[in-house]
Every structure is written in C-alpha cells, then in structure tokens.
User: Fold this.
Amino acid sequence: MSNPHFVGVETARPDAADKVSGRTQYIHDLAVPGMLWGAIRFSDHAHARIKHVDTSAAEKLPGVEAVITGYNTPEVRIGFVRDNFALKRDKVRQFRDEIAAVAARDPETARAAAALVRVEYEPLPGVFSLQEALAPGAVLVHETDAKGRPRKDNLVPVRFAHHSGDLEAGKRASKHIVEGEYRVPLIQQSCMGTAGCIASFDTRGNLTLIAKTQIPFLAQKDFNRALGALGLEGRNTRVVVPALGGGFGTGLDTHAYEYIAMLLAWRTGRPVKILYNREEEFAYLSPRQSATARIRQGCDANGKLTFREIEVTQDNGAYTSWGATFPSVMLVPATSLYRVQNISFESKIVYTNNTYCQAMRGYGNPEITWPIESSMDELAELAGLDPVEMRLLNSNQPGETTPMGLKITTCGLQECLERTAAGLNWKENRGKRRNVKRGFGLAGLINVAGGGKIYRSDGSGIILKPDDYGNVNVSYGGVEMGQGLHSVLALTIADTLGVRPEQVIVNQTDTSTCPWDVGTHASRGAFMACNAAVMAARKLKARLLEWAEEIFPVEVEEALAKARKHPGFKEPDFDWRGNCRPGCFELSDGILTIKGAPAVPELQVDFARLLRAIHFRRQGGGTTFAEEAFYEPPTELPDWEKGIGNMSATYAFGAQGVEVEVDEDTGEVKILRLVAAHDVGRVLNPQTLKGQIYGGLAQGIGYALYEEVLTDKGRILNPGFTDYKLPTAVEMGFPIDVQLVQTNDPEGPFGAKGVGEPGLVPTAPAIANAVYDAVGVRIRELPITPEKVLKALQEKRRR
Amino acid sequence: MGYDYIRPASLEQALSLAAQGESALIAGGTDLLVALHKKKRPAPGRLISIRSLPELAGIRDEGARLRIGAAVPLADLLAHPAQARLPALAKALGVMGSRQIRNVATLGGTLCNASPGADAAPPLLALGAGVELAGPAGRRTLDLAEFFRGPGRTALQPGEIMTAVLVPWPGAGTQSHFLRRSRVAMDIATVSLAACFGLTNNRLSGVRLAAGAVAPVPLRLRATETFLEGKALTDETLAEAAKLARADVAPISDLRGTAWYRRELVGVFLARALRAGNGGKP
Assistant:
C-alpha cells in the first residue's frame, strides 16, 4: 500500500449510475408479500390528559385489519432515558404524540381510519419556551421520571459540564472581555428520502425490520428489548437497511413509528409498512433543537485568549432523544477550539411541550461554534487585531493536549486559516469594502475526526469474502446514506489488497450478515470502515500470498508449457522460481506476479484464477476465504460531568471564509464567494470528499440564512418546503473554492480523517462576521434573515 | 381520489358545461391540483379542461393592444416577441415557479387563482390591462383592477370563463419595471411591485403603480400615483412617495414576512423603480 493508485484519485462512486437512473431501491420502493400499511393517529393538543379513546368507527372501516392504542398493547418504552412510549396513555405532551395506529390494506384506508379514531382530551396548560419551562412553578411536562419518582422541574436528567483552570484569574488577566447571547433555531434535517420502515414477524416471533436507520446494531438492541415487552424474550430482530435518501442524524435513534409498525405486525401477523410523506416528516420526526448560548471570553493586551465561559440552554421538546446529548460534542470546541485555559462550560436541557428533538449533522458543534467564532471577531476588534491574526495567535498546534484532554495529533488549523484568508485576498479586502456594502468574514472549526466515543465500544467490524470470480464481497455494519462510504471502502480495499475497485462489492447492511458497528455518525463512517478494511485486507492478502507460494509455480509452469507450443516463444529472462516467496509476490490491480518480473502473461496469475486454484486445489484439499477485522480506535469514553476525555482518535480542523454583499435597504445578504479550507488528513476520493463539503456548506448556509421550523404553542407552522426554505441552486450560485489540507494523520486509514460534519460547522459565524464587516451590524440569532438585518441597520442609524 | 375530466371542444361547449355547476375549470392545473391534493378546497364533481380551447389560445397584436389568450402558457408568452415591449411583465413571468411549471401554468389561470402575491398581476395592473370574460350572458371586459375581489376571489360570475388578457401597448417613452423579493428562488413573493411611467426632463408622467403580497388583492397604489404625476424626480419626492406607498398598502404578517417588513419594502421598491427611470439600478 506504499503507492496507492486508487486512493486519492477522482473516482465515480459505485452507486452513482443506479441513483441517477432510478434503479436504487429506497424504503419508498419496497414492498413485501402480504404487506399492510400502517397509519398513526397523532395528538390534537400540545399538552392534555387523554380521557377516552374510541376506536370503534376506525375498526368498522372496510379494509382495516387492526386498530391499536396504548390501552390494548403492551407498554413499549423508548428513548435513552425511557421517558417516551410507542403509544401514549394517560397524557400527551406534544402535538406529535402517537395515540392510536391502524393497519389496513392500503395507505389511504389506513390514514382515513386513523382520522376516525375519536379521542377525548382534558387540555392542560403547556410550556413552549425556555423561560416558561424554567419559571418557578412551571407546568411539568413529565410529572414523574421513568421509575415513577416525582419530578420537581423541567430539566432533563443529563449533565455535561467542564471546569478547568481558574476562571476568575483568567478574567483578571484579561485586557478585553466580550459577552453575548446567541440563538439557534429549530431546523429540519430535510432528507430527500422521507422516513419509513417495514416490520414483519416469522412464526417464532423473530422480527425483521427494514429500517431507515444509521444505527442498525443499536436498533437491534432497542428492538430486542421491545420484543421482551411483547413477551418474546430471547427472540431476535434482524435490521436490514435499504438505500437511504439521506440521514443527517435522523436515523440515530429508533422511532415510535418503527415500534408501532412492530406492534401492528405482531397484532396482525402480517408485514406492516409505515411511510411518512413530507408534511409528516416535518410534523412527526425530530428536528435539530433550538438553543441559547451565553458566552464570555477574554484576551490579554496581545490578543492571547485568557478565559472562556459558556452556558447553553437547549429546548429538548417533550421527550428525550440524542439531541439532549449535544453538549457532549459542544465540549470539544468549547474547550479546544483555539488555545485557551480557564474554561467554564455548563449546559441545561429543558423539557417543553414542543416537538422533541434529535441528532443532526454536526451534533452541537455548529450551535456552539456560532457564538465562539462570532465572539472571536468581537474580541479581535476590541484588541485592535485582524480577525485572522487573532486566530493564528491562538491557533491549536500539532502535539498539544487541550483542557478537555483531547490529544491533538495532526492539526492543519493554521494552514486552513492562512489558505482561507489568501483565497479571499483578505489583507486587501477585509474592512475596506464597506463603501460598497461588501464584507469579508471567516471562522474556524475543530471536529471529531477519528470516531466519537459515546458508547462502551466505538468500534467497527468488517468481513471481506472473495469469491471464485475475483470479487471481494464486503460486509460492513455502517450505513451508506449518500455520503459515499461505499466508494471509499472500495478504493481502500482495492489498494490494500491489490485488486481493482470494481472488484469490491459492498453488500447491503444487515445485522444478520454484517459485524457490529456502533452507527454511522460523528464523521466516523469512512475513518472506521476504512481502518477496519485495511486490517482485514492485509490479513487476507497475507493468507493469499502464503498460498501463492504453492499455487503460483503450478500456474506459471502450466502457462509456460502452453506458451512453449508456439514457435518463437522466448523464455522470460527472470528467475521466478527462486522468488516464489510471500515477500517477493506482488498483488496489484487483481494480478499476482513477482516483484521485478517482466510483464509477460505467463508470469501473471489473475486474482480470480488464484482463488479458484486454491479452492479447487488438485491435491490435499482446497479452501475458500473470508477475513474479518474489528477496529476499535484508541480513545476514551469521557467523564461527561467533568468534560474530560480524549473521545476521538484524531481531530479535523478547518476554516471557511466568505465575501458577502448586504443590501442596506432590504437587509438581504448575498454570498459572492466562499473559500472552505479543510484539514482532511488525506484525500480518499476527491469527488465524494468534495461532495461532503459542498453538501455541508449548503446546509451551513441554510442554517445561517434561511432555515427555521416555526412553531406556535407547539404546533409546527411550516411543515413542508413551501414555507421551510432551503437554499436553492440560485442561492448557491457563487464560486466555491474548496482547499484540501492534507496532514496525513498517523491513525487515519491512508492518513484520512473524518469529514462528514465539518463542512457546515463554521459557515454561519463566517457569514455573520462578513455581514458585520460589510455594514457594521452583528446578528446573534440564526437565521440571519433580511428582516433582522434591516431592523439592526435601522437601530444602528437611530443610535 | 379521482375526478371526471371533460375536455370540451369549443368555448360554447365549455360554457354550457360550466353552467351546470358542480365543476371546476382547469387549465394548467398548477394551483388547482395542488389545492385539491392538499384538500385545501372541496373536491368538485368534475374538472372541465379549458386548456386546449381555440378561443383561449394565441397571442395577437391587435394594434393598440396585445391580446393574450387566457390559456396561453407562461412559457409561450415569455418566448413571444411581444415580451420585449413589456419588460416588467416578462421579468415577473420569468420568476414564476420553475420552467416546468411555466410550461403548463397559464396566464389566465394565475389571474383567476387570485393569489394576493400573483407575480403577473402587478405588472399587468401597472400596464392598465383588462380581462375578457365570457359567460351565459355574453362577453364583457373588465379592468384587471376591478377583477380581484379578495384572496382567491374574483369578479367571475358563476359559469363565466376568462378568455383573454388585454394589454394596451405602452406609449412611446413609457418605462416599466418590476421588483420582487422572496425568501429564496422559486418561492411565493414576500413583496412585489411594478411601475409604469414616462420621464421627460426628469418629470414623471402617466404613473401607474401596483404591488403584490401587501394587501388582500394585488392592487394599484392610487394615492401614490396621484402624488407623483407631474412631479420632478427628486430625493424628496421619492421619500414622500415611499411614505404614501406604505400607507397605500395593507399587508399582513405571515410565514414569508412581517407587515412591517412588507411596508418597508414597498417604499424601497418604489424608490428603486422610479430611480431606474434615470438609469439607476432597479
């Protein structure tokens, strides 16, 4: 693998042609024989007691096979603090609470029947903002915890904090201090493919769930527990993952609709499919939560950071999913973006009667990089420093250990900042184009890039199974959700083993055939998969080359014997017999030969022929192959209450900078160009890597300028793309300069770092900093809408 | 959910079918079908397609005016040489929906849908367009400003069908401008404004202004027009006109913008449209 010739080369991804020609099968395309359709009856109130549920009219509708409620099914508790139920009894706490569900012969009948379920409520007052939920004597969203003990406030029982150094000493040492409160809105992951699943049981009570998930093995665990609730202890769930039309964190937890499909399938004895349409996806799946962050940070007279103090409060919604653990990731930039001692980080996760929230790409990092990087610019201004100089002065460096205990191995932050600035002609432009309302802004980032340990194992297993035809079948437990995982797996395996990428076939992810993986999240997919793949491919190659000692001479002699029948054949001028040792063989591009041998066909054994010769060995019995490997990164599960622990095997850095033009009359912000410099360790496939960065940027720009799920007392007002706006090709129609900084990480596969999330992390503060440079107003609440900019400009004029 | 779909061969047939009630007219269907699919309007007994009626087709220069068949797709109008003489209308048509939508959506359809934010309405209002309606009682023409009666409501009587839009050719020296803001591309307008006027020796004449998405109907800004007529184009005039225009409109706050922002933008767009008369950036 000294000279990879596939890794690093622009290569079309293996799934591209099927996707563009419509052959890829998503959950929307799948049906199984005998399948029924499920539909759910959701709450009509944000907070109410359920007095009575009458399913009789729904049951009478022709075509309906079953109507279930929390009263006629076993209790299935879900969520990692077990505060949620597949079907609600007694009380609803948000508009999307599931009260009843129907299985019917077609989706229309199922939906019509769900609408016929009559629910009587006793409405309760609700809490819909952080202020309301935290007020003394506030209405409790949950009166008791999962164990039935009374609760006294609306705080979710999780704690993430960090205190290091001496905060007061840091403040005393500060020449300049800035302070601000920053907000981020509720946003939707906006997967192109909406959510859905098919649940079916065999007669022994084993469940097969075709699920749009990013965590097949943790889902298996969740569902096996749910089978226990059905009295099916010891039975198994097989999770099969179809092609995913985007994940972005939506598949990081199991969902009530999936448990409902399971309950309906169990009740009817038939497979049941539930599929959300776009409006349902908006209304009934978990978005990224809104949050408020207060930040204070200071620097000395030279601009060196002296302290950083952050308090985050998140609106969790009514139940707890992984969104409640965003502060675990916020700890990384809070403690470790730029060199700063004397840190305080506190977080509060608050129950409200809003929709409950979940993971999304970046997982807390964009939320907290937004205040940190906005406030860095404010601090630079106070200190009379250029924002780039200020950041370079405080830049992380290779080899350092941060206050959180993160071990920074390779670090391209400085180079990313410099290349971003150079790409924008920073020195000539920044602060100098206000006359034409143009501004330049930049922000940096740190992100986990070698896994993110949040579970007892952060590992990934892989199985490589070559066949008689020279194909290498790969079973991997992580999920291809559009990011290009299968592409980089193929390139990595091709180079490590010595075959061509098209010989590598990555199978569908299925818990019954793939080894365990914790899930595809935290920018860990390529890093983990390719590390495991390198391990397994090396083992496989070593075994094959051992066999080659016996097989190669036999095959070559046979080929030579045939060749000698042709008049004029010349014996190769090479001592191949004396070099038939594993160390002398070379397997490359699917051809086995001996290093230094002349490139004549007689001295080459095709990979498929080698495999067949071993399998169908003439004497002494042959064998087939499968090699397995499990990669567990060298990381620590952090102590979350102390906020200490090296949770990733390496860290990605980067910087993004933009030039914007602000229309002072309308408040519109137009991006004119963008430079994104990312420390990616090493490029595996430039095409999929840039795809990750472009996609991240589009989401980062959506977060910065356009996206917000609007609610009114818990009800979502814009459940669809008519009124929930993503940037279109028009808004993205500016030049993007992606700079790939290769730091060649020692722990990364071929030196690569994870790149899934960084693309959207610093985008919003870079834009806000540019808006400030253009017109002198600082917006602290995303999205930066024209209305907010215009209001701020008018206030500035009045002052 | 299905509907009976009838395609009459002539306007006469269409009128007699429409007179029977229990039906909805469909041309491009880009508004109607979405509304039916989302159950935002009751399902009609049947759909009468007027898309291919010869009486509703074609774009014809009638000398003093352009006659645009009500069932002419927006894309056809945009591709017609006449659009060069109606730049504000062409600009509005060009931002309506996507190319695919413009290939099927019709000019008559967007007007009869009577959305307060219909992009084609302000330029047509500012151009002084009229509409031709055919009904059981015969044909009539109506000033477009009289046609809009409220969100989704028009002057169409039961059984009446819009047959054409009549656009008087702007006089020599008349300028027309269209300004619009939406959250992103391919979005319903937050505010739109069209202006037609002449400007000779920096003096305004024949001023006609109309705005969209700032009132229950697309509307003419009459008080502002009256104020501007004959005035010299100065900063003071523009400031006063912007103030009047903000008073001429009656916006609401919705998901696309607040009433405050819409009022602000009406003033900004008005000033920009008029400044464009002197070569300013609209």
